[in-house]
Amino acid sequence: MNLQGKHGLVIGVANEHSIAWGCAQAYADAGASLTLTAQNDRSRDYVAPLAERIGADLVTLDVREGEQWDAVFSGLAQLDFALHSIAFAPKADLQGDLVDASAKGFGIAMEISCYSLIELCRRARPLMKSGGSITTMSYYGAQRVVPNYQLMGPVKAALEASVRQLSVDLGGDNIRVNALSPGPIATRAASGLAHFDELMRKAAADAPLGTLTTIEDVGQFAAFLASASARHVTGQTLFVDAGYCARD
Ligand code: NAD
Q1: What are the extents of the domains in the chain?
Q2: Residues whose CB is less than 8 angstroms from the CB of residue 113 and which lie 6 or more positions away in sequence, other chains included
Q3: Which of 18, 40, 62, 86 to mutate to test the pocket of ligand 1 (most atoms within 8 A of CB)?
Q4: Which residues sit with their C-beta closer than 6 Å to ligand 1?
Q5: Which partner for 96 in 83, 100, 160, 183 could form a disulfide, CB atoms 3.0-4.6 Å apart?
Q6: pLDDT tens, position by position, 192-203
Q7: Does the predicted TM-score (pTM) go above 0.90?
Q8: How much is the average pLDDT of 15-35?
């Protein structure tokens, strides 16, 4: 995987446990230069030392803030690939049954976890003059009922459907759009799910490879997708879960 001379935008590093951090390291190892985003001043404190470690630029982006999107994109002279690795749902809606979810909570989850990918694609398109690759992060709960995944199931289903449609919208510009679907990984976002330790135990026990997925595993696949080696891969949801979904 060679990303020499390529520039990537990485949205979703919160700390060194973030899946986006595993991806950022793999992109940098493959030779890419990067711009990382931090959601706010508090997360900048955690992300700044990581950005420094790989020589990346750091900007602030809360995806609900239009002027922050403007600032991020006006600072980019070149963009070859982008990673969208963010999700959020209000805790009360996330931890209750889907049938009890509020319209407001569902809307916030959709806006931050799904619509922001559409926004990213729209803004990235004019900068990706010689084509590009945009990758988002989904989860198996988009396709099957996973205990305690609750309203994030339909939100991730919408994300995967958006990936398919966006791959058509942007295919004519040679921009590829894909989702990776990792197995459960202990991150800050995952800690918001009830009984997440049980999900991890089951994933390790039932996966054909008998192991959990790491952020490094996801990073390797993300770097492949960003590279020319994946030039005919678009519109897909690709699992990095040690084979769990083949068996469940
Ligand atoms: P994480 O907590 O490290 O990352 C989540 C990121 O979302 C954070 O960087 C946070 O700042 C960002 N975010 C939330 N609201 C935002 C907003 N309004 N604007 C900008 N950024 C915002 O957790 P993670 O597990 O690395 O999550 C990354 C992605 O991976 C998510 O889409 C998640 O659903 C997906 N995923 C996670 C797992 C898992 O088990 N951890 C499995 C499959 C998919």
Answers
A1: 7-240
A2: 86, 87, 88, 89, 152, 155, 156, 159
A3: 86
A4: 12-14, 17-20, 39, 43, 61-64, 85-88, 112, 137, 139, 182, 184-185, 187-190
A5: 100
A6: 898 999 999 999
A7: yes
A8: 98
- Let me know how long the chain is: 248
CATH code: domain 7-240 is 3.40.50.720
> Can you tell me the mean pLDDT for 180-196?
95
Q: What does the pLDDT look like over 52-110, one tens digit per residue?
A: 999 999 999 999 999 999 999 999 999 999 999 999 999 999 999 999 999 999 999 99
